[in-house]
User: Which sequence fits this backbone?
């Protein structure tokens, strides 16, 4: 089987598809990764064939602040980057699928139905976070308007009306795609943000039922298989200092803002260091390209980057932004979280961890050293939270879930 995997966005969007791609490749199938050109060197170093697709959405350092605003970020991303580039994305992805038998896409690859129709191959979309389904039966926390989440107590109708408004609003943003579809001889189609992003063949929900149970208003072709975890090669420059630090004392606090929000960290890591010192706790700061805070004691280690699987299992608690990859790894490792969500799916992911009893949440605007200390005391002193986290970890089954994902793809290409 020859499979093209396409992703637009951050490493958090790319890594789950790489996990599935690695499993497909390891059994001898042919794999191509299509993503923003900035990921090319990284993808090739992992042993994959790479094809660049536009727009280049890799969020470089200091480049994502205008995209990360909770209220306007998604609109800017879609109206100023994704939809104006649909012709280029289509051409690039068509080239990447030239010899493919199957196309698997993440969020934002809205030209996938057109490429599949042109090439005659089936396509699959992978949903990484529950909020992408925009269910009125299991309402998500909408980053632009989190207060509306309280309306869930009045049943599905308020959220059905709210989502209907959002459908009409975002549909206008997609006009470049509708025009391009008409140019290719297709009907305009439905709003891709809400509807046509889901493949009629197969939609993979790549998170477990314990994180979000399936809903009757999800598309009928959804197959829920669980979190895919991509095992990253350790960074040689960082792995030895981290190992030495972990072996030298008690389990540390781990502060991370993922691969994108780290670019707009501001004073987050300085406040984190002050909080760790006030708590008398060792800490690891995953600071990306930010300069390390000044005057750090030996009990606090700043590191540019490290695979989460190398440090989360040995953490006392993790403090993160609520990206789905960080949430998944925290659940897998049985470690409690303090979540400071920024935008997109992060507020909803944070709320789901809180409901599971394994996290506390803190507003981004309140993430000072003092509030971090107060919230972390609630996490670190909560023995029930630690026990619940360890119990949930036993219900995360990566190998089994990945096998279910591959089986779903196989059944689509080669039905039994």
Assistant:
């Amino acid at each position: 089987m020859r499979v093209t995997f396409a992703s637009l966005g951050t490493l958090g969007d790319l890594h789950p598809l790489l996990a599935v791609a690695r499993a497909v490749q390891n059994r001898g199938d042919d794999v191509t990764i299509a993503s923003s050109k900035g990921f090319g060197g990284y993808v090739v170093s992992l042993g994959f064939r790479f094809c660049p697709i536009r727009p280049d959405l890799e969020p470089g350092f200091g480049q994502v602040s205008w995209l990360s605003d909770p209220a306007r970020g998604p609109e800017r991303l879609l109206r100023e980057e994704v939809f104006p580039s649909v012709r280029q994305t289509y051409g690039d992805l068509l080239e990447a699928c030239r010899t493919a038998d199957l196309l698997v896409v993440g969020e934002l690859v809205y030209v996938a139905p057109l490429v599949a129709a042109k090439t005659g191959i089936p396509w699959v979309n992978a949903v990484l976070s529950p909020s992408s389904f925009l269910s009125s039966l299991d309402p998500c926390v909408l980053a632009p308007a989190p207060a509306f989440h309280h309306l869930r107590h009045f049943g599905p109708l308020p959220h059905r009306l709210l989502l209907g408004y959002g459908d009409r609003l975002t549909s206008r943003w997609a006009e470049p795609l509708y025009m391009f579809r008409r140019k290719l001889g297709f009907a305009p189609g439905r709003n891709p943000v809400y509807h046509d992003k889901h493949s009629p063949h197969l939609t993979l929900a790549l998170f477990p039922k314990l994180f979000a149970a399936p809903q009757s208003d999800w598309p009928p072709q959804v197959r829920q298989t669980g979190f895919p975890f991509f095992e990253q090669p350790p960074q040689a420059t960082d792995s030895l200092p981290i190992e030495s630090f972990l072996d030298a004392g008690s389990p540390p606090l781990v502060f991370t803002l993922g691969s994108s929000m780290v670019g707009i960290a501001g004073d987050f890591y300085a406040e984190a260091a002050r909080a760790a010192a006030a708590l008398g706790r060792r800490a690891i700061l995953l600071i990306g390209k930010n300069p390390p805070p000044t005057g750090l004691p030996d009990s606090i280690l700043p590191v540019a980057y490290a695979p989460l699987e190398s440090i989360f299992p040995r953490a006392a608690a993790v403090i993160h932004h609520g990206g789905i990859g960080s949430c998944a790894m925290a659940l897998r490792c049985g470690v409690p979280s303090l979540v400071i969500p920024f935008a997109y799916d992060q507020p909803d992911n944070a709320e789901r961890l809180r409901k599971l009893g394994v996290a506390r949440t803190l507003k981004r605007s309140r993430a000072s050293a003092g509030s971090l200390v107060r919230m972390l005391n609630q996490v670190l002193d909560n023995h029930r939270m630690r026990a619940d986290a360890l119990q949930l970890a036993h219900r995360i089954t990566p190998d089994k879930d990945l096998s279910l994902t591959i089986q779903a793809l196989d059944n689509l290409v080669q039905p039994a």
User: Anything to note?
Assistant: The domain at 236-393 is CATH 3.40.50.2000 (Rossmann fold). The chain has two domains: 2-227+397-413, 236-393. The chain has a mean pLDDT of 93. The two ends are 16 Å apart (CA to CA).
